[in-house]
Amino acid sequence: MSSMKKLFGILLVAGLVAGSSLANSEDDVNARTAPVGSTCMSGDDCAAAPAPAAAAGPKSGKDVYGGFCTTCHGAGLMGAPKLGSAADWGPRAGKGKDTLYTHAIGGFNSMPPKGMCASCSDDEIKAAVDYMLDNSK
Ligand code: HEC
Asked: Per CATH, the architecture of 61-134 is what?
């Protein structure tokens, strides 16, 4: 099992290298058959993370929300303010965006740090907060 994983990882890296430099060879085939969205190279965690975390470049607030925050904020799990609910988000917004950012990044009661998106940057988390606020007025 673990040697299969290793092989898979090597193929991914080979595919990425081929995609960026060489063309026209067996490696090219590897590049074309490599799974989409496998641009995560440093560290092992990202390879096992859900799809949004493996996407290239900064994630949009919408993507971060859809990949992580929706788990709780979609249905209002454990008292999480629901997306689309002005009644839920109004009082939160009243605390000021900076406080919401700080709580989203560092955690707040049952709200886990970074909404459990360990691979998200602070800016990506802020974008997700903005996305929820903008869509809950
Ligand atoms: C495991 C469930 C869970 C996930 C996942 C989650 N949240 Fe939350 N969140 C909560 C709960 C519960 C609260 C309410 C906490 C409270 O008021 O005591 C909350 C509150 C918040 C608040 C309001 C904080 C405040 O000061 O009122 C923000 C902002 C927030 N979450 C952002 C996010 C973002 C952004 C994500 C995704 C990156 C996310 N959350 C993912 C459970 C979650």
From this structure: Orthogonal Bundle (1.10)
Dist. CA 119 → ligand 1 center (Å): 17
62 Cβ below 6 A of ligand 1:
no
48 exposure class (CB count in 10 Å sphere: 0-12, 13-18, 19+): exposed
pLDDT of residue 4: 55
pTM of the model: 0.70
Domains of the chain, by residue range, sit at 2-54, 61-134
| Nearest ligand 1 atom to alpha carbon 64 | 38
Grade residue 57 by pLDDT with cuts at 50, 70 and 90.
Answer: confident
